[in-house]
Structures are given as C-alpha cells and as structure tokens.
Specification:
293 residues, alpha/beta, two-stranded antiparallel sheet, 11 helices, 9 strands, 35% helix, elongated, disordered N terminus, disordered C terminus
C-alpha cells in the first residue's frame, strides 16, 4: 500500500484529492489536475495509480508534505517548480525557479522552426535566451544533424539547460553565457529563434508571474526592448536566406513585424497560437544579402 498498513484514521488518497481540489479552486483554473499532479509527484506514481488506489490511506507523514505543497500552490507557486518537471514537445524537462516555466504556446515556435530546417541537412541554429533549454533541445531532438547553440545571460539557467540536454542524450547541444549575440560574436546561423522577455515593466500580469525570474519576463518599460535588439543585430549573425523567429506578446505582432520589415527582412508573417492569439513573428534575410547595415 502507498501509505503502509491500513489506518482508517487517516484520510484516503481519494478524499485527500477531493479536499485538495477544493482548497485550490480559488487559486487555480485546474484545481483537480493540480492536486493529482502534486500527489502523484509526492508518491512517485502515475495519476492513473491514484485512481486505482483511491481507497488507500495517505499515511507515513505524507499528509503534511502534501499540505505544504498545496499551500505553495495556493500561493501561486508554479506547478512545475513544485514537481521540478515540465513536459515540452513531449520531452521531460527539469525546471527550477532559475528558469521560466516552458509554455505550450512556445511549441508553436518549435513547429515553425522545424519547417525551415530540412531533415538530414546540416544547419546551424541559435536559441537566444534559452532558459531551461526547451527550444534548443526540442530542435536538436528533431534534427540530429543540426548544430544547436543555446545562449543565456544566467549561469544558473544554463546549468538547468545543460542538465536537460544530458538527461535526454543531447550532449551535442552547446551552451554559451552572454547577452544575446555577444555570446557568438563572429558566428552566423541558418536560423535564430528566441522566446525573449517581452512583458512591459508596468504590466499587471507580472504580479501573477512573481515566482518566475524577472530577467526572463520583462526587458523594460515597453516590453519591446529585447525584441528590438534581437531584430537589429540579427542580419550580422544570419547566413543569406536565414530565418529569425520570435515569440512575443499577443498585442506585439504588428510592432515586431514592422521591426523586421524595417531591418530588411522578407517573407515577414505573424502566426497565431492555438488560442487564436498572435504569438510568433518570423522573417527571412534576403538570400542575396550578405549583411544589412
């Protein structure tokens, strides 16, 4: 039994989940799922096992540990920080408070990046602001011949990214410390991707994201500062015909598209996520252009 010998004075797993979901209802849009994921993590079993064993008691000091996790979740701690993991592109990733929690909408960036990376071809890919390494390892897993470099200003974030790559057998991904292109001063790539900080400094959304690293969330007053810097310096780090793909806020698509067009990019377009919100804007460096000054 999960909790040891039967003790009917202890709450059952099923009852513990019911009470936990009720407790999280005011702070989570998915209270039952959150409760199941936290308890499954604590017991080191699957969610399906919780259902099968719902009548068994939750003992052995586990109620107190479960209560502590629920208290942190009710205080808006991201679920991924509590379990230490997050799935992205069907890959299990370790996540710590040193990195932004990978979001499902960022998979849109991976999807469109793969569309311009032919299978079986050697290509150079740069992921700027890599964080947990989610984008870099997803691309490396799908395109084994690609040379992938992930860059981040945070040494702690790079340690998380490198650990994720090792765990997935993707040690060939390289990691560089530095601010954007400064980490690759003389290199050019076929594709540059980034999910940079893009939340304006005064945005009310930052209060809901307070547990996540501010460095990965907001670049300044307008929210466009990092995006503008990435576009401005991209031509000097792309091969002719190379692509720049950027994730951004749902209202920033026109601004990012304008930045790309002014910098000389062609085939500029903005892609909506599954919620119908503009989320990724991309552009191609003209194939005949060596650089745009």
């Amino acid at each position: 039994m999960i909790g040891g010998a039967a003790d009917h004075t202890l709450p059952s797993i099923g009852e513990s989940l019911r009470l936990a979901a009720a407790r999280l209802r005011a702070s989570s849009e998915t209270p039952r799922l959150d409760a199941e994921l936290l308890l499954a993590h604590l017991l080191e079993v699957s969610r399906a096992a919780l259902i099968v064993r719902s009548g068994e008691p939750l003992g052995g000091g586990l109620p107190g540990r479960f209560d502590a996790l629920l208290a942190r979740r009710a205080a808006s701690a991201p679920l991924a920080y509590l379990t230490g993991t997050r799935e992205f592109w069907s890959l299990p990733l370790a996540v710590t408070p040193d990195v932004l929690v990978p979001r499902p909408e960022t998979e849109l960036l991976v999807e469109h990046a793969l569309a311009v990376l032919p299978r079986g071809a050697d290509r150079a890919v740069l992921d700027l602001g890599t964080g947990s390494g989610a984008i870099a390892v997803a691309l490396a897993a799908e395109r084994p011949r690609a040379r992938v470099i992930g860059v981040d200003l945070s040494a702690a974030a790079l340690a998380v990214a490198a650990a994720n790559a090792r765990a997935l057998g993707l040690e060939r991904v390289a990691w560089r410390a530095g601010s954007w292109y400064q980490a690759v001063p003389a290199e050019r790539f076929d594709l540059v991707v980034s999910n940079p900080p893009y939340v304006a400094a005064g945005d009310a959304a930052l209060a809901r994201l307070a547990a996540e690293p501010a460095l990965a969330l907001t670049p300044g007053a307008t929210g466009l500062e990092a995006l503008a810097a990435l576009v401005a310096d991209a031509p000097g780090h792309l091969h002719p015909g190379g692509w720049l793909m950027l994730e951004h806020g749902s209202l920033q698509g026109p601004d990012v598209a304008a930045l790309l067009a002014r910098r000389g990019f062609i085939r500029v377009s903005t892609i909506a996520d599954h919620a119908g919100l503009p989320r990724v804007t991309l552009g191609q460096l003209p194939p005949s252009t060596q650089d745009i000054s």
